[in-house]
Amino acid sequence: xxxxxxxxxxxxxxAFEQRDARISGGRYRKTLITAVLSVSIVxxxxxxxxxxxADHQYREALNAESTRPMVRFAAxxxxxxxxxxxxxxxxxxxxxxxxxxxxxxxxRRLREVLTNLQRAFGGFVDLGVIDDNGIQISYAGPFxxxxxxxxxxxxxxxxxxxxxxxxxxxxxxxxxxxxxIAVQDVASDGPFVLRATIDTDxxxxxxxxxxxxxxxxAFLINRDGILQTDSRRYGTALQRCPIAMPTNPxxxxxxxxxxxxxxxxxVGYAAIERSPFVLALLSPYEALQAGWLGPxxxxxxxxxxxxxxxxAVVTGGSVYMLNRARExxxxxxxxxxxxxxxxxxAALGRLSAGVAHEINNPLSxxxxxxxxxxDLLMLxxxxxxxxxxxxxxxSVLKSAERCGGITHRLLGFAKHMEVQRESIDxxxxxxxxxxxxxxxxxxxxxxxxxxxxxxxxxxVSDRGQLQQVFLNIVNNAFAAxxxxxxxxxxxxxxxxxxxxxxxxxxxxxxxxxxxxxIFDPFFTTKKxxxxxxxxxxxxxxxxxxxxxxTVSSEVGMGxxxxxxxxxxxxxx
Amino acid sequence: MEADAVRVLIVxxxxxxxxxxxxxxxxxxxxxxGVTTGAEALSYLADTSVDVVVLDxxxxxxxxxxxxxxxxxxxxxxxxxxxxxHGSAQDADRGMELGAYDYLMKPVKIDELVxxxxxxxxxxxxxx
Lengths: 572, 128
Hints:
The complex is a heterodimer.
Chain A: E1 2-3, H1 7-23, H2 25-104, H3 107-120, E2 124-130, E3 136-140, H4 154-162, E4 164-166, E5 178-187, E6 190-199, H5 200-208, E7 217-221, E8 254-258, E9 264-271, E10 278-284, H6 285-379, H7 386-415, E11 422-425, H8 426-435, H9 438-443, E12 447-451, E13 458-461, H10 463-480, E14 486-493, E15 498-505, H11 512-515, H12 534-544, E16 548-554, E17 558-566
Helix pairs in contact in A: 1-6, 1-12, 2-3, 2-6, 6-7, 8-10, 10-12
Chain B: E1 7-11, H1 15-27, E2 31-35, H2 38-47, E3 52-56, H3 64-74, E4 79-84, H4 89-97, E5 102-105, H5 110-121
Parallel strand pairs in B: 1-2, 1-3, 3-4, 4-5
């Protein structure tokens, strides 16, 4: 069974180096900003959209609410003005038909009619009867207008064709705004016109009855844009109205307009039938909005408070969470530091035990040889022969040299603990590692075979790290084999720029369920305690060196670790 | 107690150590012989009678613990003193269980070895 490299292990091991950088503040600050921004956007944007929609809908509703009465009152005004006019025209018509030309041409009778009309309807100022030639042949009213000729006036020719006529408001002879209504009838002795002057006060009263809101204004204008009644905003009748009326004002809805002072208005127009009048009912836009300002202020306040709260909670929460994460990272880091340290110390302990053991043998020889020399000098009366002493001294020197060799090798091993890249003879490196286990191998009669190509490859890598890798693996192999077992070390060039080193033993093997955890940190099957870090660290180092490590094993048959390393020539 | 006539067999894979020890013990009146493997030791013991065996625990081939086990199988009263390196306390304990008289750490102090050999050969019971 072959266990592929695991990404999570890769992460766990590379974490060994990167975590210091990860725990530094910058990364946390970045995460904090990202968290706060994303959560804030996710919460605040919908809030803004909802508030915007609410604002819009409320405004629409409010607009409809405030425009509807205007539309209604414009219609009411039109109706009452129309019925006023038709009432007065009918009254004239009736007078013409009842009395006839013969009676009406008599000024006394005409005054009677005027009195009746004034009593019945009001607004009538005077009456006049005008003959076919435009001459007012009889008159009833406050002025002396009998005999006046109206033949040159436009209205006279108009009434002659339309038979009914309502004039614009004008000053006329009387210096007070008034308008004229007239009807024509055809008598037996020729057509005549009954003309009445109506006081605009009546119109003013009718129009101002529409002003149910203090901000509203209502007035009549004619097609030339001249005020026909008094306006709250634009002065008295016969002044020019500073709003440009549309040529065909829509009925039943409001028009948004600006007057000449630049004020925004909503205007409802209603043309009065059979007259030159158009009723205008208007309200400044701001007045309509006023009802909206209060709720809008509330909505804005709600929005600001909400955003503030969201930001406070999100920021506070994120800071809290990240602090917790950071604390836990630091705790984990210190734990890993501790474990790494423990592992290092364990390795150091193993190494020093081996070295002590190895040094002990030559040291014993030195002790005994020197002791013998001392014995010979002290215990015997006669000096021992020169050759004997020379032999002992040489033996001491040889053993001391052996000690020196061991020390040298140890120093050589330690020297390469720092990370550096250099050209490495793999065969030499592996033999150096095995040097530490030579004695154990010989005591336990473990046979180590080499399966190398003719010219063992040289790679560029980190000597110290590789020593640790192979020492760990070979150590495990030693632990796995029985006394008299076999370990085979093979080197071969793989495809491309890689070299594979395999360490195969015929030891106890690893059970399949253990095999998949073999590189996990803290996983160990050693009774009474490996740290479970040896192979995990080995895995991490091989990864770091750009290589791969795989393992295959069968219980009772043995285990094979294969370390594939880049030759690294490209880097060198 | 006199060292005279106390017969000692020294077993250690380091030949030079064995020869030096043999000579030093002989200078002190012991009748010492040395061999360098466990197998040699067993065959020597089969032919020759000795009083005390000084046995290195770690040896290639037949190790010290195996040798003491076999010795005790045949001659339970033959005293064995073990030599161990530092950090091999487990081996020493195992040896004591197998019936060793005592053990010494290498490098050995000659006076300690002599005292232990005299005690072992006189049949003195170890106080521990």
